[in-house]
Automatic annotation (TrEMBL):
One of its GO terms (cellular component) is cytosol. It catalyses: GMP + diphosphate = guanine + 5-phospho-alpha-D-ribose 1-diphosphate; IMP + diphosphate = hypoxanthine + 5-phospho-alpha-D-ribose 1-diphosphate. Its EC number is 2.4.2.8. The keyword Metal-binding applies. InterPro entries: HGPRT, Hxn_phspho_trans, PRTase-like, PRTase_dom. Its cofactor is Mg(2+). This is Hypoxanthine phosphoribosyltransferase. It is found in: Cytoplasm. Purine salvage pathway enzyme that catalyzes the transfer of the ribosyl-5-phosphate group from 5-phospho-alpha-D-ribose 1-diphosphate (PRPP) to the N9 position of the 6-oxopurines hypoxanthine and guanine to form the corresponding ribonucleotides IMP (inosine 5'-monophosphate) and GMP (guanosine 5'-monophosphate), with the release of PPi. Keywords: Cytoplasm, Glycosyltransferase, Magnesium, Metal-binding, Nucleotide-binding, Purine salvage, Transferase. It comes from Leuconostoc kimchii (strain IMSNU 11154 / KCTC 2386 / IH25). GO terms for biological process: GMP salvage; guanine salvage; hypoxanthine metabolic process; IMP salvage; purine ribonucleoside salvage.
Length: 179
């Protein structure tokens, strides 16, 4: 797998530092509250584990799975709710944990869904923010790293379900995903 990576962007140490930085800020911002933390599957599972180790709060953890890539390297613009949450979020503070905010369409879909269900606040903590990929106007509240408009994998991010287990985020070589 490592041979398929053009460049390592963020290694384990830098990711850990980002988790510590954001975990401290989230702990301060949600002091005295018990937020519902919503981890977006499958990509955010490692980020969720590492970030939540740095958050000193009582919280509820839920998982949601939405899909827009459907196995490719770019969004299909069709958002599908694959796995829904079980908790009632009416009147609750919700913190969405994302691996990457790219087009913003999946995030907008989730925020609108949670707002309709009565969340009192909805914030987003993302490992990666790819602003050049945006198709809708939306921002994350907590950002680990800004990333350029490249196809990245590792640390939960995948290409055709592969590379999620890499301990870093790197740019996938184009010859791997182009004919």
């Amino acid at each position: 797998m490592n041979n398929d990576i053009q460049e390592v962007l963020f290694d384990q140490g830098r990711i850990h530092d980002a988790a510590m930085r954001l975990g401290k800020q989230i702990t301060q911002d949600y002091a005295g509250k018990k937020p519902v933390v919503l981890s977006v599957l499958k990509g955010a599972y490692l980020w969720t584990a590492d970030l939540l180790r740095e958050v000193d709060l009582y919280l509820d953890l839920e998982f949601i799975n939405v899909s827009s890539y459907h196995g490719g390297v770019s969004s299909t613009n069709e958002i599908t709710l694959v796995t829904d949450i079980r908790s009632d979020i009416q009147g609750r503070d919700v913190l969405i944990l994302e691996d990457i905010v790219d087009t913003g369409q999946s995030l907008l879909f989730m925020k609108e869904l949670l707002a309709k269900r009565g969340a009192s606040s909805i914030k987003v903590a993302t490992l990666l923010d790819k602003k050049d990929g945006r198709k809708v106007i939306i921002d994350a509240d907590y950002v680990g790293f800004d990333v350029r408009n490249e196809f990245v994998v590792g640390y939960g991010l995948d290409y055709k379900e592969m590379y999620r287990n890499l301990p870093y985020v790197g740019i996938l070589k184009k010859e791997v995903y182009t004919d």
